[in-house]
């Protein structure tokens, strides 16, 4: 074969490869356009018809700066409906006199006082306890002295809003240590606001996608169904049964789901700035784990790949450092991350970029609990509260408390006393 024939053959191979890639890309986009079905994003309502959760009162009030505030000394009860009957009732959340999650400060002066910032994972209430409560007990035993953890976790918060809150709290209150307990999904959550309003005579607990004290026609999502008739007495009388209250909750759920179906933004099929096929091959997920859903059917996400481009983030990090309170970001690994050999494979491309950006901005590595949980032989299948609720079970909360304590002791953020001190 002479040089001319060889070049001709090489050109044909290149053209064929390019043509094949273009056809594959077109096929991938056609598949996504016609067949890919995003999961309905309904805030706390969830897309699963297997279980419907309703609460007896709204959990929050609107706050422009922090998204929302929990009312002080509030106890919220929740009813879970399955197969058309009342499955269970639980004390869903409790706040102290300052509107923070939990029962409030201990009756003694603690030797170590920790501020804990987080999302619903850390605010999640099971059998009267949160991860913060169990972590305080775990650290007290390991350190041989008293520990108080003030739980500033807020449902729906991402990293950005955790720092919004921490920038003020850590400059107004005295703590020995501050912790940011994040899950991977927190990385690209944009700011969101909570509201409790009446719409057409119906009490609604909402997430707003914009900071505004009034609710427009398309700027909110229902976070949870509110049914004032839920009470411990009603729960005891109706357990395992169906009545008019259960029927009312089901009717409202169905109506809200019908009005909040997600819409896939199909403009991606014509954009030329990225390859959907290559993104799938490199990230392991379609759209790199960030499907282009149209608002207001989803809560807002950060579309930047650096926290330097998120309004107010750098200022808040600077103010946290200015407080001179030592702080650390700790990653709480969820069940799927324990099954995966490489954690990066589970992050969307934007989340992975933001993980690295956050480390750069704060000047420290994010410490993950993955190895500690694996070292405790954590069972991923037992870490969810139920088959329809992914938040941590009591078993998972116990493991998280131990894993976070492991991280803090191993990296010497806390040190045990030589002699046990009385509380």
Briefly say what this structure is.
This protein has 423 residues and is of the alpha/beta class. The chain has helices at 3-35, 120-123, 131-143, 159-172, 232-238, 244-258, 276-283, 313-322, 335-339, 349-362, 370-375, 394-410; strands spanning 51-55, 61-63, 67-69, 75-82, 85-94, 112-117, 147-151, 177-182, 193-199, 202-208, 220-226, 327-331, 367-368. Helices cover 35% and strands 17% of the residues.
Shape: globular
What is the residue-averaged pLDDT? Answer: 85
How many domains is the backbone divided into? 2
Largest sheet: 6 strands, mixed
Could you describe the 3D structure shown?
The protein is of the alpha/beta class and 423 residues long. The chain folds into two domains: 43-99 and 193-269, no CATH class; 106-191 and 300-410, Rossmann fold (3-Layer(aba) Sandwich). 35% of the residues lie in helices and 17% in strands. It has twelve helices and 13 strands. The strands form three sheets. It has a six-stranded mixed beta sheet, with helices on one face. It has a five-stranded parallel beta sheet with strand order 7-6-8-12-13, sandwiched between helices. It has a two-stranded antiparallel ribbon with strand order 2-3. Helix 3 crosses helix 12 (394-410). Residues 37-44 have low confidence and may be disordered.
């Amino acid at each position: 074969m002479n040089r001319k024939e060889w070049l001709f053959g090489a050109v044909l191979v290149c053209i064929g490869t390019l043509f094949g890639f273009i056809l594959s890309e077109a096929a991938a986009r056609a598949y996504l356009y016609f067949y890919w079905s995003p999961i309905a994003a309904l805030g706390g309502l969830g897309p699963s018809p297997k279980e419907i959760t309703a609460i007896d009162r709204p959990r929050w009030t609107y706050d422009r700066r922090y998204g929302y505030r929990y009312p002080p000394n509030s106890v919220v009860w929740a009813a879970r409906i399955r197969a058309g009957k009342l499955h269970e009732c639980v004390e869903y959340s409790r706040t102290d006199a300052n509107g923070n999650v939990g029962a409030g400060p201990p009756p003694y002066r603690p030797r170590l006082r920790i501020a804990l910032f987080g999302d619903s994972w850390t605010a999640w209430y099971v059998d009267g306890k949160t991860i913060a409560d169990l972590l305080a007990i775990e650290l007290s035993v390991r350190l041989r002295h008293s520990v108080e953890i003030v739980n500033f976790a807020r449902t729906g918060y991402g990293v950005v809003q955790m720092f919004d809150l921490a920038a003020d709290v850590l400059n107004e209150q005295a703590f020995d240590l501050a912790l940011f307990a994040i899950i991977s999904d927190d990385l690209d959550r944009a700011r969101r606001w909570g509201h409790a309003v009446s719409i057409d005579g119906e009490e609604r607990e909402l997430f707003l996608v914009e900071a505004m004290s009034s609710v427009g026609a398309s700027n909110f999502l229902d976070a949870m169904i509110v049914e004032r008739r839920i009470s411990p007495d009603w729960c005891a009388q109706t357990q395992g049964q169906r009545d008019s209250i259960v029927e009312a909750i089901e009717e409202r759920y169905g109506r809200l789901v019908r009005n909040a179906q997600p819409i896939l933004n199909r403009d991606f099929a014509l954009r030329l700035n990225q390859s959907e096929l290559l993104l799938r091959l490199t990230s392991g997920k379609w759209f790199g784990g960030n499907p282009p859903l149209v608002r207001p059917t989803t809560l807002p996400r950060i579309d930047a790949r650096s926290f330097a481009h998120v309004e107010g983030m750098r200022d808040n990090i600077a103010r946290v450092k200015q407080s001179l309170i030592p702080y650390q970001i700790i990653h709480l690994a969820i069940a799927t991350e324990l099954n995966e050999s490489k954690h990066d494979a589970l992050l969307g491309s934007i989340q992975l970029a933001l993980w690295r950006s956050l480390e750069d901005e704060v000047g420290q590595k994010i410490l993950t609990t993955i190895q500690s949980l694996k070292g405790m032989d954590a069972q991923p299948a037992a870490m969810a509260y139920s088959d329809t609720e992914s938040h941590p079970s009591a078993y998972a909360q116990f493991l998280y408390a131990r894993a976070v304590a492991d991280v803090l002791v191993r990296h010497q953020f806390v040190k045990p006393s030589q002699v046990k001190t009385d509380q």
